[in-house]
């Protein structure tokens, strides 16, 4: 490949019509009208591809993201939906030398913010000295009084921050916002990178692009060191705290947890005992010494912070006060995101560090000062006026109050009245970068999000990874919620770069993976996932059985139909609704349970589950009789595929055992109930065949008995047979086997209430003959199995 | 004057609740004019953890944790408090515009700083138009911050009718103002919002009133349970002034302070986090007896 590829015809086609906006800097085209040096190789490589090839590569990248389950949650007025990750296929390229200056400037800024934080939660000199208006702190919902005076155990308040920066009209970079609470995006950056590298794999492999993995490895090491790994303290456990699957960035939380190999916990997973944060596991309480929180601080502890929170851990603040926990970042760091702070940081930098900000932030005026207010009023035309205490990223959501006040013509009154509650900010104009639209490159506004992590060697800057691209040429359209795109960012070096992986460099001591006790909530969710899937399967079987008979007989008359309908009704399922109405809620519950354990769940399993949901909605319109039979059979095959994936591919940790116990107990319960109904001596003709069919044991019966089914053969096969995987006895034996591997069972101590009840239920089934298995006895067994579920919850899910 | 105080707060849960953790603000704080001579806080059943500390506003906090499931729990405070009667002070407070200047001249964030008490707080967002207008009208003729505080208390007392049961602990101040009925918590919240809308820093005081009035005086509203009233910052010289809008009176020797904060959420006597599945109930009893 030639460095100067201007002459190639393909390149002319790629850049043809690419016209930067007047007076707006462009990342690709320099002031001289030519592509910047950093872009040369990529443009040359892409120019050598036909439009069809490019489209195929972009589709491959999208497929990767979709297969990897990358999504974000989009909020609409009342509801939220998950959307595919909107990736722009053109990375943003930044020259290494320019990047180094950005990194140096942001490192200084992170250090400055650490000092501001230490002052706001310590001596309070900035306010007392008149450098920061007291109202911005005292009236700030992110300034958390319970945290005042609480020293961070690690010695630092900030460990992981991000900055949004953009390039202004003069070509210089500006900080648009400080993200110091729990910035998201780094996981998406990794996925952007993988997808983009996949699209342009040959080029990426030899391009001098800084790799991202080293950043994560160093930060993981730093977390482990904070947890005491260096001193060999086994209790030094690290965890990530998430608000849960309803959060916009939950995918990323699960992704990073998997990537770093640390547990993902929700507030309810943890308790505080004796001043120590503990995780509730199936092996009892285990200490946590480092918590990387991915939720806003006010929700972290309903006792001392926002009392309405249901996603926090009561006593968390108390644990921090007791000094046994390091928090990334310290609770209360959200105050640094306050928009009005940008108005004071330039002076604070002079005051604290004795130098101006190395990279300026967007010009901001706090309207609580009369002079500043007058300035904003007289320059209103090129100002954005918004809430002074807002901590939202600049482009996340519109500030409508200012627009309303402007349109109603009482802007000046409003400004005067609201004063200290407002800031004016110079209207942002951003540089543009190329994005593909309809196969052509067009200039679109962009900003970078840059991540910094504190390690023992100081702040590490993630070299690229995440840019936001507007869909329109207006800068206000950057927000993903409004249809913006995300793009990879490549830091391009002139020299070859070092390959980085998550693995430690040779010669380093390998980090031992943390011994992982299964959190109780994860066990609970896996258990219920097993139950729901099994329940869905049985409902589909019942449904199919009904329609098979309808197709054979043409009309749903007779006692057998009535018996089936009654059996379904006892499960809360009505035949008058559609198949999707009958199975949908159960499947939804299964997906809900699976969503909570995505960090321990194989991707294929998850996709099989969502496929199942999609198929269910497609088959819901099937005709009664044959059509429904076919639809039900399709669903049964897909359920079997899911079960196979999960049971074949899941490592035999205790999580898998809970999933299996869930399936086994549900199946034992279902089969006992269907035998009670369909093997009853008074059951209508054909009920015994039906029981065998529902128990999926038609073949086994034929092979074992070589005769028409009788009550005795059916009960023998479906209740008592220790070799038939559908039999009640088989299920209970399996449960006993799984339980023997669970924590607590290995000790030679008294049997737990669960184990005792299990033994009792087993004896009632195994120690008997078909003749003694009356309908009453079968119903009693079903009841005993249901009780086992409660006892298991008491033993492990509390 | 010496008082013996008994405060008992009890909860019962239909299905035993696990993982219970509580923050109590029941032991009276040290405030000017009041001395806590002795206090005992009895917890039943015995908690597995108990920690005493002070919060940001220097209130006394008792932190509790219960490992075992709780079917019921009771907190009983017995305290002896010495309270000095407050002599009526001459109003030396500045006009409202001067108050703003005096406030700006005190840029601190210490516990005593008035700056905490002017912005919206967890339970008290900015006063809606009707409430701000009511306050502005009540204080229209006030020459000083002190007069404005008295005038707002008087007007609010006239606007509202004391009625136990008309509101509950989750009623917003807007709803209570609209319904014109409520108890001391509602009076206090509404008045704080009004004073803040006038630019006067104002906070919430939880405490007690003596149960039986002195001979020949009427029984005050709010003596059967914990009481609440308002503290307002009236300038650098005057400092904090306390006023009881439920009874429209200056706070005197019969008001005993437990805790101060921006609104109820800062001073709630019991804040609990407990995993519940069934219904629960609670009760509160207060006795405040002068010691002869």
From TrEMBL, chain A:
Residue ranges of domain Circularly permuted ATP-grasp type in the record: 91-469
Superkingdom: Bacteria
Domain DUF403: 518-797
Protein name in the entry: Circularly permuted type 2 ATP-grasp protein
UniProtKB/TrEMBL annotation, chain B:
Species: Pseudoroseicyclus tamaricis
Tree of life domain: Bacteria
Name of this chain's protein: Transglutaminase family protein
Transmembrane stretches, start-end: none
Location of the Transglutaminase-like domain: 176-247
A Pfam family the protein falls into: Transglut_core
Stretches assigned to coiled coil: none
InterPro entries, per database record: Bac_transglu_N, Papain-like_cys_pep_sf, Transglutaminase-like
């Amino acid at each position: 490949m030639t460095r100067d590829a201007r002459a190639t015809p393909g390149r002319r086609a790629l850049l043809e019509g690419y016209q930067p906006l007047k007076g707006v800097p462009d990342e690709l085209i320099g002031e001289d009208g030519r592509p910047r040096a950093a872009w040369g190789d990529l443009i040359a490589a892409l120019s050598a591809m036909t439009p069809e090839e490019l489209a195929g590569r972009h589709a491959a990248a999208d497929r990767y993201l979709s297969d990897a389950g990358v999504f974000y949650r989009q909020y609409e007025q009342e509801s939220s939906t998950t959307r595919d990750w909107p990736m722009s296929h053109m990375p943003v390229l930044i020259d290494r030398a320019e990047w180094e200056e950005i990194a140096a400037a942001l490192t200084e800024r992170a250090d400055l913010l650490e000092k501001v934080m230490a002052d706001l939660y310590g001596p309070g000199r900035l306010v007392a000295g008149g450098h920061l208006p007291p109202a911005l702190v005292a009236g700030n919902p992110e300034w958390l009084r319970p945290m005042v005076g609480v020293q961070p155990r690690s010695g630092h308040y900030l460990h992981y921050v991000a900055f949004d920066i953009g390039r202004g009209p003069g070509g210089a970079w500006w900080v648009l916002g400080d993200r110091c609470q729990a910035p998201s995006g780094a996981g998406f950056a990794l996925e952007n990178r993988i997808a983009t590298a996949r699209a342009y794999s040959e080029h990426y492999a030899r391009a001098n692009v800084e790799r991202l993995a080293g950043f994560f490895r160093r930060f993981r090491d730093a977390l482990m060191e904070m947890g005491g790994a260096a001193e060999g303290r086994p209790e030094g456990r690290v965890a990530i705290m998430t608000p849960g699957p309803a959060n916009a960035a939950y995918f990323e939380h699960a992704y990073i947890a998997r990537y770093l190999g640390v547990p993902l916990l929700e507030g309810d997973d943890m308790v505080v005992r004796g001043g120590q944060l503990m995780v509730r596991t199936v092996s009892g309480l285990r200490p946590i010494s480092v918590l990387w929180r991915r939720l806003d601080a006010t929700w972290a502890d309903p006792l001392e912070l926002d009392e309405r929170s249901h996603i926090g851990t009561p006593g968390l603040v108390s644990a921090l006060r007791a000094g046994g926990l390091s928090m990334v970042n310290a609770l209360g760091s959200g105050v640094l995101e306050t928009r009005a702070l940008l108005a004071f940081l330039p002076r604070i930098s002079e005051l604290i560090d004795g130098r101006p900000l190395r990279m300026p932030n967007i010009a901001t005026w706090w309207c609580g000062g009369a002079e500043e207010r007058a300035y904003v009023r007289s320059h209103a035309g090129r100002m954005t006026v918004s809430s002074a205490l807002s901590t939202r990223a600049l482009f996340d959501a519109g500030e409508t109050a200012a627009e309303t006040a402007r349109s109603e013509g009482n802007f000046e009154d409003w400004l005067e009245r609201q004063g200290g509650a407002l800031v004016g900010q110079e209207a942002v104009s951003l540089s543009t970068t190329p994005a593909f639209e309809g196969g052509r490159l067009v200039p679109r506004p962009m900003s970078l999000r840059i991540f910094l992590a504190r390690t023992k060697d100081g702040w590490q800057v993630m070299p690229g990874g995440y840019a936001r691209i507007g869909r329109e040429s207006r800068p206000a359209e950057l927000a993903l919620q409004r249809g913006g795109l995300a793009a990879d960012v490549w830091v391009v070096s002139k020299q070859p770069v070092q390959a980085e992986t998550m693995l430690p460099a040779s010669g380093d001591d390998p980090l031992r993976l943390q011994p992982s006790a299964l959190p109780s909530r994860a066990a609970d969710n896996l258990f219920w996932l097993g139950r729901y899937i099994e329940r869905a399967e049985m409902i589909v079987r019942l449904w199919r059985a009904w329609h098979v008979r309808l197709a054979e007989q043409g009309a749903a008359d007779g006692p057998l139909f009535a018996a089936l309908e009654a059996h379904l009704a006892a499960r809360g399922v009505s035949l008058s609704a559609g198949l999707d109405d009958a199975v949908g809620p159960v499947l939804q519950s299964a997906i809900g349970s699976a969503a909570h354990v995505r960090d321990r769940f194989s991707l294929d399993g998850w996709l099989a589950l969502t496929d199942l949901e999609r198929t269910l909605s497609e088959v819901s319109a099937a005709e009664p009789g044959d059509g429904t039979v076919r639809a039900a059979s399709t669903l049964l095959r897909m359920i079997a595929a899911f079960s196979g994936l999960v049971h074949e591919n899941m490592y035999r940790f205790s999580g898998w055992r809970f999933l299996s116990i869930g399936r086994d107990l549900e199946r034992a319960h279902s089969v006992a109930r269907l035998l009670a109904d369909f093997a009853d001596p008074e059951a209508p003709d054909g009920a015994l065949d039906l029981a065998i069919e529902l128990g999926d044991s038609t073949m086994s019966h034929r092979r074992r008995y070589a005769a028409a089914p009788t009550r005795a053969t059916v009960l023998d096969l479906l209740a008592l047979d220790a070799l038939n995987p559908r039999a009640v006895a088989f299920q209970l034996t399996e449960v006993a086997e799984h339980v023997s591997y669970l924590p607590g069972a290995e000790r030679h101590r008294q049997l737990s209430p669960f184990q005792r009840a299990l033994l009792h239920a087993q004896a009632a089934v195994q120690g008997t003959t078909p003749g003694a298995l009356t309908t009453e006895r079968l119903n009693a067994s079903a009841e005993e199995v249901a009780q086992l579920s409660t006892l298991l919850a008491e033993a492990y899910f509390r | 004057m010496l008082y013996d105080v008994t405060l008992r707060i009890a909860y019962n849960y239909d299905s035993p609740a696990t993982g219970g953790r509580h923050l109590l603000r029941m032991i009276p704080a040290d405030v000017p004019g009041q001395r806590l001579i002795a206090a005992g806080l009895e917890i039943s059943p015995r908690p597995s953890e108990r920690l005493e500390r002070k919060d940001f506003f220097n209130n006394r906090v008792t932190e509790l944790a219960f490992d075992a499931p709780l079917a019921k729990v009771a907190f009983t405070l017995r305290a002896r408090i010495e309270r000095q009667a407050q002599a009526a002070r001459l109003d030396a407070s500045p006009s409202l515009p001067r108050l703003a200047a005096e406030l700006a001249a005190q840029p601190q964030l210490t516990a005593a700083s008035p700056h905490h008490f002017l912005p919206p707080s967890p339970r008290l967002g900015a006063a809606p138009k009707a409430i701000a207008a009511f306050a502005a009208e009540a204080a229209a003729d006030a020459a000083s911050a002190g007069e404005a505080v008295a005038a707002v208390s008087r007007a609010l007392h006239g606007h509202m009718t004391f009625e136990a049961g008309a509101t509950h602990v989750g009623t917003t101040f807007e709803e209570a103002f609209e319904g014109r009925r409520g108890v001391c918590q509602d009076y206090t919240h509404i008045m704080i919002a009004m004073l803040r809308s006038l630019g006067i820093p104002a906070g919430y005081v939880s405490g007690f009133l003596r149960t039986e009035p002195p001979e020949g005086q009427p029984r005050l509203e709010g003596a059967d349970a914990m009481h609440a009233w308002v503290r307002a910052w009236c300038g650098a010289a005057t400092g904090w002034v306390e006023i009881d809008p439920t009874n429209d009176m200056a706070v005197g020797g019969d008001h005993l302070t437990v805790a101060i904060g921006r609104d109820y959420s800062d001073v709630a006597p019991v804040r609990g986090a407990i995993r519940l599945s069934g219904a629960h109930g609670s009760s509160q009893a207060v006795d405040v007896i002068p010691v002869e």
